[in-house]
Design a protein that fits this description.
mainly beta; Immunoglobulin-like; disordered N terminus; binds copper (II) ion
Length: about 500
């Protein structure tokens, strides 16, 4: 069985000629997109049971403290027959070990850098102090150990992740395997009784030699392309479920650039959580849900009551822009297999989950305009800029004040969709604008990453709680590395 490859640049290339002027691959596009998987195509083993992710062991026996060491280092795994694939992994695991803590915990994690290059750990979505958040200004050198230390405040229960944020090499480090979930639990979780499953989605692209292929110019233009989608490190794994059982799925999109428009054959989703944890009330039933790169969702899924049946979880066809430049083809992610036996009893879903307080009126405004330039950094054929400038870590681009609520208009004047991530806080989507039509956010939810499709804008309401420098960037990792990032300085009140 083969995965349907992404349909890039096929019949619509001519219309995108201006965008792609300078593409070395000529009319056929670059090798990564124009000829799907040309030069790649090593098949991974598939159909194994969905891996239950290992947890990072807590070395502290003191209540309220989580203490551990994690090592980022080269490792090799037998992903394809007869070959060892060289990867960069946390503690030798693909994906890395889950940090599983409770609200109120004090977290102390030592990172040992066994990699041949600088790295950091960014605690994606968590309100950790800026100097503990793995900014590119704070590299951990090869051979060095760095301790990250922070509190996990009340109200932050949710599904987060951690990954490197080193200057210019984040995409490379994540594509080599460095990513892992970080789950914060609340003492009063209204869904604590629902069996849960964590599913971290990553991409892997292996060359004919069975090794991870590096990013090329096309990747640095439109985000890393081709390869296979893995769930918990496995290709097309099988998730066995008792018929009729309701489960809580925590799904993390840890791919470089792949938008996941998720749908499960014959099933509907109930959305109960987003990047920053639970919604005020369940939303659904939903036939599909879009999870942009770096975003997370918590879904309730009630399996079919038919024993011994199989259903496919897919990432559905999704365009990455408004111009017909490229579209992700539908791709299978995982098989849900109902077991034999009698169906489980129905699970009652609470009508309300937790209060989501309104953030209050905005006292300041910001406008971020995303634009495209003719030439990109890192060999990309075009660059993406925030307010006209590429990233410079020595410059401050935006200034906010601790505790002040701001409205940010993020205007996408490029030809591609960009998932925009702000470090250190969770924000609310207020509204979206497209072709002059404004639509209010359909429900209250905490986000740290908002997708802003090409030619549209999004207004978010955001507040930073701690002073220091924060990163604001596109979470298509190749765009981030190629300079689509700004420095936000949060000043004390
Ligand atoms: Cu981008």
């Amino acid at each position: 069985m083969t995965v349907k490859r992404r349909e890039f640049l096929g019949t619509t290339l001519a219309g995108a000629g201006a965008l792609l002027a300078g593409c070395g691959g000529g009319g056929g596009g670059g090798p990564a997109m124009g000829a799907p998987n040309a030069g790649f195509g090593v098949s991974l083993s598939q159909g194994q049971p969905l891996k239950v992710l290992s947890k990072l062991a807590n070395a502290s026996s003191e209540p309220g403290r989580f203490s551990a060491t994690v090592t980022a280092a080269p490792a090799s795994l037998p992903l394809v027959e007869g070959r060892a694939t060289s990867l960069w992994l946390y503690d030798g695991l693909l994906p890395g070990p889950v940090v599983d803590v409770r609200e109120g915990d004090h977290v102390r994690i030592a990172l040992v850098n066994g990699l041949p290059l600088d790295t950091t750990i960014h605690w994606h979505g968590l309100p950790v102090p800026p100097d503990q958040d793995g900014n590119p200004m704070d590299p951990v050198r090869p051979g060095a150990t760095r301790v990250y230390e922070f509190d996990v405040p009340a109200g932050t229960a949710g599904t987060y992740w951690y990954h490197p944020h080193a200057h210019g090499t984040t995409a490379e480090q994540v594509s080599m395997g460095l990513a892992a979930p970080f789950i914060v639990r609340a003492a009063d979780d209204p869904l604590a009784q629902v069996p849960e499953v964590t599913m971290l989605v990553t991409g892997i692209r292996l060359g004919a030699n069975g090794q991870v292929s590096p990013d090329g110019p096309m990747d640095f233009s439109v985000g890393r392309q081709d390869g296979q989608l893995l769930v918990n490190g496995g290709w097309l794994p099988v998730h066995a479920v008792r018929p009729g059982e309701t489960q809580r799925w925590r799904i993390l999109n840890a791919t470089s650039a792949r938008y996941l428009r998720l749908a499960l054959d014959g099933h509907a989703f109930t959305l109960v959580g987003t990047d920053g944890g639970l919604l005020a009330a369940p939303v659904g039933p939903l036939a599909e849900i879009l999870v942009a790169p770096a975003q997370r969702v918590e879904l309730l899924v009630t399996a079919s009551t038919t024993p011994g049946a199989r259903f496919t979880l897919r990432a559905l066809r999704h365009p990455i822009d408004a111009m017909g430049v490229g579209t992700y083809a539908t791709e299978d992610l995982l098989t849900v297999a109902t077991t034999a036996g009698t169906p489980a009893a129905a699970t009652a879903v609470p009508a309300s989950l937790r209060p989501i307080e309104p953030p209050g009126p905005a006292v300041a405004q910001k406008r971020l305009v995303l634009t495209q330039s003719g030439m990109g950094m890192m060999g990309g054929m075009f660059g993406f800029l925030i307010n006209g400038r590429p990233f410079d870590m020595s410059r401050v681009d935006l200034v906010s004040t601790v505790g002040e609520v701001e409205d940010w208009d993020i205007v996408n004047d490029t030809l591609m969709d960009h998932p925009i991530h702000i470090h250190g806080t969770q924000f609310r989507l207020v509204s979206r604008e497209s072709r002059g039509q404004v639509a209010a956010a359909p429900y209250a939810a905490w986000l740290d990453t908002v997708d802003v499709p090409a030619g549209t804008s999004a207004t978010i309401r955001v507040r930073q709680g701690l002073a220091g420098k924060r990163m604001v960037h596109c979470h298509i990792l190749e765009h981030e590395d190629a300079g689509m990032m700004a420095v936000l300085e949060v000043r004390p009140k």
